[in-house]
Amino acid sequence: MGIIEIDASSKIIIISANIICYGNAADYDLAQQIADEIETMWNEPNAIIDLDNTSYFVRFAIASQYNSVINAQSIIDNQNPKNNYFRIEEYSNINISCVDAIGSNTGYFMLANLYKGSTTAAHEFGHSLGLVHPIDLNIVGKGVPGIMYPRGSLVDQEFQNDITAKPGEAGGTLNPQNRRVMQIDIDNLKLNKLIEREIFAVGKFTNQYHAAHVNENV
Fold this sequence. Notes:
Blueprint: E1 2-7, E2 12-22, H1 28-43, E3 48-51, E4 54-66, H2 72-76, E5 83-89, E6 98-99, E7 106-110, H3 120-128, H4 183-187, H5 191-196, E8 201-202
Parallel strand pairs: 2-4, 2-5, 5-7
Antiparallel strand pairs: 1-2, 1-8, 3-4, 6-7
Helix pairs in contact: 1-3
């Protein structure tokens, strides 16, 4: 989730968001790493949209915060559309990182997914802005996979977990490190439609606090 700010003099639309991390596996450095990944990847395409017959660059400004003493009520009561709250733990009972809904400002991240270059945070941020997985998850022959393709997508061999495997076989699916944000991802946010309707927030409040999942097999 984030807010839309328009700099008419510079012809720039800025999407601003705060990434607030909590949980037993969270810390200041990881929160900063997540924010940096999101900001860098979403700014990479130097995207442009048309607004009132004028071209505007779209830029993302992502701040980070680690809160070791956060309480559930502060998340539940949040009214700042910039704020996104993610619990980070080593264990997840669904064995994956996720946000709470499409267009959501809260979620639960698994530490193993968040290594540098994983693109997990940038992918989940796309969901937080309202983007879904593409319908066709077979893009063999179509080049670099976009940021919203999930793990398990079929891609050209050079973008697979195992570049020697045949697509669909063991190792023959998307290595998420190869995902990239593209102009089409910015287009799919439909920022111009939101602005025309005087809506200056992207995504929605879910404001859900997460307790740490418990591994009952340990």
